[in-house]
Design a protein that fits this description.
5-stranded mixed sheet, globular, about 20% strand, alpha/beta
């Protein structure tokens, strides 16, 4: 690659070379055309040698074009920031004032100015870059800096961060809990999908079982007009909640007499094997619209006041979401292609046309705000039960790595996202063909220019009502693999890792929320060590805790990472019983994800060996139920080993890991996959599997009782 183009790419954080994480690791050299494409969409022309040189100069001079950065993110043991000033001002008197964002209190500080003689001349103007080091100890938090020199005041934000993330006090001992997809919860009273009332019932169930944590998939709002787009990892906004989780009967404005007309419909939705998203969602919206009509009569003054306070607190973010949903509802009936296909005047939230549209449709906008108000109210009620029932961590929420491109987030702030690309991943051991997620990706430069506020809002929204937060694909704090929408060659874009991870640490303390990083896939060298230094807990699964990159023996429980949040598998992996019989192999072959008969047979052969290795590990650790010891080798069609799920739960519960999360799918012998990456619902019913046992009957189920007892033997 031409040297100056490579320099430009590196200065913009674009990788010109990268490795994948396949079983046989490959190195890729990114082509010049791909690099030029990415430079151009990041705002730096690179089509000709002259453009490349101009862009290089622009990048090199970028920091020298402004006195202060928009934000400085520092650790509390070394608080300093740089300033770029005309050389003529260096001898002038300088004053420094700090004001705490939260308290509004001004803080007097002592400081020193360090001149390292960094100089540059731009457009005939001589500039110096100095360092201002604050000697006064500062508490963690956000401060407004006012730097005054010769009657000129420059302002910026200072984020003073702790050196490590928050550690919940309950994690001074081993704990356990459940990993649950809320939508999959089956109950005798919900409307065909798990809801916030079910979540409260799960809190009781966990408390009765002695559990301290409930892991949840992302709860964020999805497309109102297309309920079948059900992936919780492709929301329209990570700031708000999915109204499908509202328990309609718990809404104060609901009229119980209305239930009589829909009893048959409710029974059908409750008893269906798969979640019927469109029917469930539309039914809920029908009655929530009636509730909203009752709400608007203004008789319940307390509710009206709470609603107004909620709308004020959520501000323009809620307004934009509600306007987006109203517009989308309208234009989805007329135009195919999402918000990018709308008339030009409606493609930006601040346009006069959008402002007028919001006024003209204020009632419908108000309805969408009402949905979020009720979501927040019911979720907060479930969180109150966490305190009432004494769960140590409580809810362990999940933050998706990105957001759907046809989303309120991108419509609200398109300038924050890299255009014409979507996030994904190169090949790794679990996904040998790589992954194309088609998610919007933050633009690092724009993110910093907005003082990271969009990122911070998302962190705060998802730490709310949570004692722990799982950051999906946590490597995105350092880099994210971007794939052009036109299917061209992709590469990694680097983020300001030091800033991003320090802000995560700060918000974790301010919100008393432990941080967990999902790092399955292509992990950069040294990245896991960096997470460990910041006290970001790793994730671990039984299937990954093996020697020889997943081909060797299962590791001893004592060798599991002590700080990890550990489970048997994930929602993307086959439940234990499905894994045992190899149904996942046959499923992948039938859908063309396994290329040919030979590859399928090789997969079955490996699974046979893996079953032997698992049995050996369970035998070696003496974890089989005392009243149900292993009776045979269960090879060549001998069936499913009775008690194996209890043995596996004892095995993983015995691990050195601080947290163990049991999956109800394993406890209840589920034989089907919740999500099969690389497929859409036309091939596999992703995100639609209900648990086979109703919530009300779980505690009386013998499999549940025996597995909880097995966990208690070790935790």
């Amino acid at each position: 690659m031409e040297e100056k183009l490579e320099r430009l790419a590196e200065s913009l954080g674009l990788c010109t070379h990268y490795n994948d994480a396949g079983l046989v690791q490959k190195e890729y050299a990114v082509g010049e055309d791909a690099i030029k494409f990415f430079c151009n969409i990041l705002g730096y022309k690179a089509n000709t040698q002259e453009e490349i040189e101009t862009s290089l100069r622009q990048v090199e001079e970028r920091r020298w074009q402004k006195p202060l950065e928009k934000i400085y993110v520092v650790e509390n043991d070394k608080v300093e920031f740089d300033a770029v000033l005309p050389s003529s001002m260096l001898s002038e008197l300088m004053t420094l004032k700090l004001k705490n964002h939260e308290s509004g209190q001004e803080t007097e500080v002592s400081y020193q100015v360090i001149n390292n003689n960094e100089e540059k001349e731009i457009d005939g103007k001589k500039l110096n870059r100095i360092i201002v080091r604050i000697d006064t100890p500062l508490t963690i938090g956000y401060y407004e800096i006012a730097l005054t020199i010769k009657n000129k005041t420059y302002k910026t934000i200072l984020a003073v961060c702790p050196q490590t993330c928050y550690e919940h006090p309950v994690l001074d001992k081993k704990i356990w809990g459940f990993a649950i997809q809320l939508y999959s919860v089956k109950s005798e009273r919900n409307w065909g999908v798990g809801d916030f009332t079910d979540l409260g019932s799960l809190v009781k169930l966990a408390s009765n079982a002695g559990a301290d944590i409930i892991g949840l998939n992302p709860l964020n709002v999805l497309q109102h007009n297309y309920p079948e787009e059900a992936s919780p990892y492709s929301s329209i906004s990570r700031l708000f909640l999915n109204p499908i989780y509202i328990d309609v009967e718990a809404v104060p404005e609901f009229n119980p007499e209305d239930l009589a007309e829909i009893q048959k419909e409710l029974e059908e939705l409750r008893n269906s094997e798969l979640i019927q998203y469109t029917k469930v969602y539309n039914l809920k919206m029908r009655f929530l619209e009636k509730c909203y009509a009752t709400f608007k009569d203004g008789k319940n003054k307390e509710r009206q006041a709470a609603y107004k306070a909620f709308c004020k607190e959520q501000g323009t973010d809620l307004e934009k979401l509600a306007v987006f949903q109203t517009l989308y509802e309208d234009y989805s009936q007329k135009i195919w292609g999402g918000w990018n296909a709308w008339p030009q005047e409606y493609r930006h939230p601040d346009s006069p046309a959008v402002k007028q549209y919001a006024k003209d449709h204020a009632d419908r906008v108000g309805f969408f705000k009402y949905l979020q108000f009720e979501c927040a109210t019911q979720f907060a009620k479930a969180q109150n039960m966490v305190s009432d029932y004494g769960l140590g961590i409580g809810f362990y929420r999940d933050l998706a790595v990105g957001v759907g491109k046809d989303s309120a987030e991108l419509w609200s702030n398109p300038e924050l996202f890299v255009p014409e690309v979507g996030a994904g991943a190169p090949p790794d051991a679990f996904f040998p063909a790589g992954q194309k997620w088609c998610l919007g990706a933050f633009w690092p430069e724009a993110l910093k220019e907005n003082a990271y506020e969009p990122f911070l809002k998302i962190l705060r929204a998802n730490m709310k009502n949570a004692g722990a937060l799982r950051m999906d694909h946590v490597m995105s704090l350092m880099r994210l693999f971007l794939i052009p929408d036109n299917g061209g060659e992709g590469t990694y874009l680097k983020y300001n890792f030091k800033d991003m991870v320090n802000l995560v640490a700060l918000e974790s303390h301010l919100n008393h929320c432990t941080i967990v990083g999902e790092s399955i896939g292509n992990v950069p060298d040294g990245f896991l060590e960096a997470l460990k230094e910041k006290n970001i807990h790793p994730l671990s699964v039984l299937w990954a805790e093996r020697d020889n990159a997943g081909w060797g023996d299962f590791r001893s429980p004592s060798s599991y990472p002590a700080k990890a949040f550990t489970s048997v598998g994930t929602h993307d992996m086959a439940p234990l019983r499905m894994w045992w019989f190899g149904y996942d192999i046959e499923l992948s072959y039938s859908l063309g994800l396994i290329a040919d008969e030979q590859s399928k047979n090789e997969a079955y052969h490996k699974r046979e060996l893996d079953r032997w290795k698992l049995l050996f590990a369970l035998d070696s650790n003496g974890v089989w139920p005392e009243d149900n010891q292993r009776k045979s080798n269960y090879i060549y069609g001998e069936g499913y080993p009775e008690g194996i799920e209890e043995a596996v739960h004892r095995f993983v519960s015995r691990s050195a890991s601080i947290v163990f999360l049991a999956q109800l799918e394993d406890i209840f012998h589920v034989e089907k996959l919740q999500n099969l990456p690389g497929t859409d619902r036309d091939k596999h019913p992703n995100w639609r599997r209900k648990l086979p046992v109703a919530l009300e009957k779980m505690e009386g189920d013998i499999a549940y009782i025996r597995n909880i007892n097995a966990i208690h033997k070790e935790r």
